[in-house]
Specification:
- It is a single chain.
- Helices cover about 45% and strands about 15% of the residues.
- With about 90 residues, the chain is an alpha+beta fold.
- It has one domain.
- It has a three-stranded mixed sheet, covered by helices on one side.
- Strand 2 and strand 3 form a beta hairpin.
- The termini are far apart.
Length: about 90
């Protein structure tokens, strides 16, 4: 199969979709779901799903978490907070 080769089924083809799902462990490519020749979804193989999650992880910018963690401007220590509560 080439890079653009894939399985495709119209969403109305439930038998074809069910057959793909029943044999998902043996599939090497996704099943693209269409409706009126428009892509409406896809069923991915485990390998493709793992790749997709890896891509999401790689694209996530979580640096703001570290920036926020290190930002102590205007913060109060826990001991000072407890003292304020006692007053």
């Amino acid at each position: 199969m080439g890079i653009d080769d894939h399985n495709e089924a119209d969403v109305s083809q439930s038998e074809s979709i069910n057959g793909f799902v029943r044999s998902i462990k043996d599939q090497e490519r996704e099943l693209v779901l269409t409706s009126e020749k428009t892509i409406v979804g896809a069923i991915l193989t485990a390998e493709q799903y793992e790749w997709f999650l890896d891509q999401l992880d790689a694209c996530q910018d979580v640096s703001f978490i570290n920036d926020r963690y290190d930002d102590k401007d205007g913060s109060q220590s826990l001991d000072d907070f407890k003292k304020d509560l006692e007053e």
